[in-house]
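pinned: reference chain
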Amino acid sequence: MIDFSLTNEQLEIQKKARDFAQEYMIPYAQYYDKTGEFPRPIIQKCWEQGLMNLSIPKEYGGPNLGSIEQCIVVEEMAAGCAGMTTSIYVNSLGAEPILIAGNEQQKEKYLRPLIEEFKFVSFACSEPGMGSDVAGIQTRAEKEGDHYVLNGSKFWITNAPHADYFTVFASLDPSKRHKTLCAFIVDADTPGLKTGKPVEKMGHRASTTSSVILRDAKVPEENLLGGEGMGFRIAMQTFAMTRPSIAAFATGLARSAMEYTREYVNKREAFEQKLRDFQAIQFKLAEMYMKIEASRALYLKAAWTADNKGDATIAASVAKAYATDAAMWVASEAVQIHGGYGYIDTRPIEKLFRDAKLYQIYEGTSEVQRLILGRHVLDRYTPTMENIPKWGMKSKPDF
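pinned: its structure tokens
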């Protein structure tokens, strides 16, 4: 039986996240967007309230919440500020490879501190010449005795200047692509590791993004996750677990854009009547609502699949591709309805429009999601018709 209602526990954490977003995120969103400062006080308050690191198991001090609960929290926070939420949620992304492939010692050493102390872990996969093509990673890892030496550069790394450690992907032989990819836990104070200057971005300006440079950085062999050549699988499993949350990010932003627009059309007048009375406006709001409802249903299905089936790759790609495209459309229409007021920074709409674009790019572009889904349809999808019947070959039925 399918039940779309949330449990009492899920409703409780939804309210907690919603209250946090409205009290601590929305009032300060414009300041951090304008200044580009790292919103450490807001993120620390989030950590203090137990709204970070939600997937860490109880045996390491965490709440052990599932993907559904994480998505519920993310939707509420992204409705408050997309950039802040990115910096908050990246701890879950950075910790996921450890959850997937870490041994007991690694989990105890690197997961428990995230709960007991206010710490950051960043996910270092993308490079200046490689984004969605994970198999194309050029950062090198060479085994020397009881450690690995890492050389290369990572780019677009969220929270990099503030991270206490990173999950880093590097290759033993880049010419062999995914076959020799490895994943490592690298402490931020490792000699040979440094972070670059935060980059200026179109959106998500309340989230710090920079490069990570590795020059003869020595990483103990006990910090290898899984084993040699396991990196690509770990990365793909990580994305399958975190992509539902990106769809939830997009849903929250789209919902916020719709609600601001709803408020605006109820007040604004044109041609001697409220904007809300124009059918064209009503149709736009109806389309916004439909896309938001569909996005939420898709991310909940993907999250449920992650929690109950393990491999959520296809459901997660569907949810991310649809919800991120929907958020971009909703934000664009919100600007259009607001007119000139949607284009200036005294209202939140232009920020939502700038923030929405990133969802179509990070953790696998919309095009990559379509590649995944296209290959699934062609190679792994099971047709409902075992044998496609010939169409229109019979005349009038004789029964």
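why pinned: The radius of gyration is 23 Å. The longest strand covers residues 147-158.
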